[in-house]
Amino acid sequence: MIMRSTLISSLAAAANTYPVMTIFSRPQCGLCYEAKVSIAKAIKRLPKFRYSEIDILKPENQEWFDKYAYDVPVIHFQTAENETVKKIMHKIHEQDVIDLVQKSINARILS
Known about the structure:
Helix content: 40-55%
Strand content: 15-25%
Structural class: alpha+beta
Radius of gyration: 14 Å
Order of helices and strands: HEHEHEEH
Distance between the termini: 19 Å
Strand order of the largest sheet: 2-1-3-4
Largest sheet: 4 strands, mixed
């Protein structure tokens, strides 16, 4: 039986990158802070992936401000460059992050 972590590592190697999680947030946002805490907790229970944060209030992120000004925090998770982005938004708990990652990886494995 192939171990899950080995399978995920194989998928990442095949894609030449690990999955990517991005949080879109803004300063002084209580829900954004809570989402980042949830991500930090969830990371300990998940396989490796790249993580980045985008502050939608920075001028270079105008596109994301236009899209998510009233929806932050928003988390995007993508298992490969050509895969559909899965997302969750607003009140985000640790289990929401875990479910997002696991469902995305399982969908990739089954496809």
